[in-house]
Amino acid sequence: ANAASGMAVEDECKLKFLELKSKRNYRFIIFRIDGQQVVVEKLGSPEENYDDFSNSLPANECRYAVFDFDFTTAENCQKSKIFFIAWSPDSSRVRMKMVYASSKDRFKRELDGIQVELQATDPSEMSFDIIKSRAL
What we know:
By secondary structure, this protein is α/β, with parallel strands linked by helices. It is 32% helix and 31% strand.
């Protein structure tokens, strides 16, 4: 663990992320900081969509999340991009926001294969349209 943030990352976080990336077992993964480590809070099945994902984020607590976004390019190619979303709602506690902010880069480095990063403080900042525009 990095001395600066002192945050450990559970192996399960990396394992599930690898499964999302290589086997596409999940549509999304939501992570939370529990004490001194990052743990998997929720796994979204491949059938779930972006609304299921955004509805899984708590309204007033911070989370990290990974979303596997499938889309079709203008040339009609099927593609997918893995988004890392740092969810930090304005209504969450200041201390919580600081902990999530200071641990984010270290945690993100553990997840090899993230293509787009988004920082959101309210749902409008991570709307489906924004995700779509960032993917293309």
